[in-house]
Structure to design on (358 residues):
């Protein structure tokens, strides 16, 4: 950027916060990346409720409105590990629908509080019942009350919004430039399925890299997912183990993801250890000022691995799905204290003013 920095405004006024969803920036990261390789992150925390799932939330609600499946004032319900719930709570608040989320107790406290702050109700389900228990509770409540179930794991509105927005943004931002690798993980698989479909058609030279937790390699295992007639999971996947990458890899292969796996819309499948993801998230924060969660750190760690083996000139893009602020009570912030540590106390005492009386 030139000195001094001057900004011009967005050149438009917005009728609703919902119109600010998408068009997130791709930002270059240089730490631990060879000089002759360009690695960019697509920073989804620029969305108004700070995650990639804002895209899904607006898509589910507007597709349902368009198809007449959601009536004015009808309650919306969804099973969510958090970000979808926060996105839906925002969209429902802005559009006047009551929203109920079912969520396992394993998900971070701040996500519950955020949803409640946005006016939603949160129904907790036992950690032991995993994502499937949470999902079944949402189905049960929807049926009992005649509510609209968002069905993020099955709905066409999921991959569709990534085809129409995320992928289009990537095509536009890399028009006339190289894009050798695009790296993502999966939760529902919406980001992967939507973007991969468009890249395969419009940028066939771009290698698509899919990642999953090292201790929950559902795709790599080759085990087929059992499903009911409507595509929802009939049983927990045998390769699933609880892992540290919140928002990634539920205990089943969602049908939104399955089609793209069957079509082999990825070139590399790379496992990543959750702790490595946490380390990478800290590195991004402390050496680049980029504040993302564990899934962002994990995706970035995979992208860094590719960068370090890539030939000169290679261009890589990886997704950063959400903000690190959503993990204050989680292992990401372990060791980050509330009180002054020894070095900070020493610093405080090194000048005469304003000592805390211990
Ligand atoms: N990271 C986080 C933190 C998420 O909440 C999600 C969505 N569950 C993802 C990644 C994956 O996105 P998708 O559902 O589009 O696969």
């Amino acid at each position: 950027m030139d000195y001094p920095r001057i900004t011009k405004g967005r050149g438009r006024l917005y009728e609703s916060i919902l119109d600010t969803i998408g068009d997130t920036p791709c930002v270059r990261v240089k730490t631990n990346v060879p000089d002759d390789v360009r690695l960019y992150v697509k920073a989804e925390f620029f969305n108004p409720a700070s995650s990639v799932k804002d895209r899904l939330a607006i898509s589910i609600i507007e597709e349902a409105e368009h198809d007449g499946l959601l009536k004015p004032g009808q309650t919306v319900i969804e099973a969510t590990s958090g970000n979808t719930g926060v996105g839906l709570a925002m969209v429902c608040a802005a559009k006047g629908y009551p929203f109920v989320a079912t969520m396992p107790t394993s998900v971070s406290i701040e996500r519950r509080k955020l949803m409640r702050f946005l006016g939603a109700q949160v129904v907790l389900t036992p950690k032991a019942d995993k994502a499937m228990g949470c999902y079944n509770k949402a189905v049960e409540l929807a049926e009992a009350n005649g509510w609209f179930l968002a069905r993020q794991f099955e709905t066409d509105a999921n991959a569709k919004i990534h085809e129409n927005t995320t992928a289009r943004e990537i095509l536009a931002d890399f028009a006339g430039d190289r894009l050798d690798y695009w790296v993502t993980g999966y939760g529902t698989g919406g980001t992967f399925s939507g973007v991969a479909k468009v890249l395969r058609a419009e940028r066939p030279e771009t290698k698509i890299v899919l990642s999953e937790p090292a201790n929950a390699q559902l795709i790599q295992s080759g085990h087929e997912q059992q499903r009911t007639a409507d595509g929802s999971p009939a049983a927990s996947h045998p390769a699933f183990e609880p892992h540290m990458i919140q928002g990634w890899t539920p205990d089943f292969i969602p049908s939104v993801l399955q089609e793209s796996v069957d079509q082999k819309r990825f070139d590399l499948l790379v496992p990543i250890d959750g702790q490595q993801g946490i380390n990478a998230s800290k590195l991004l924060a402390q050496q680049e000022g980029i504040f993302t969660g564990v899934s962002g750190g994990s995706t970035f760690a995979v992208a860094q691995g590719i960068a370090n083996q890539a030939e000169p000139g290679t261009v890589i893009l990886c997704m950063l799905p959400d903000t690190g602020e959503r993990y204050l009570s989680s292992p990401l912030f372990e060791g980050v204290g509330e009180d002054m540590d020894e070095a900070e106390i020493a610093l405080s005492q090194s000048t005469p003013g304003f000592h805390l009386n211990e």
Q: What stands out?
A: The chain has a mean pLDDT of 96. DSSP finds eleven helices and ten strands in the chain. The chain has two domains: 17-46+167-333, 53-149. The longest strand covers residues 207-213.
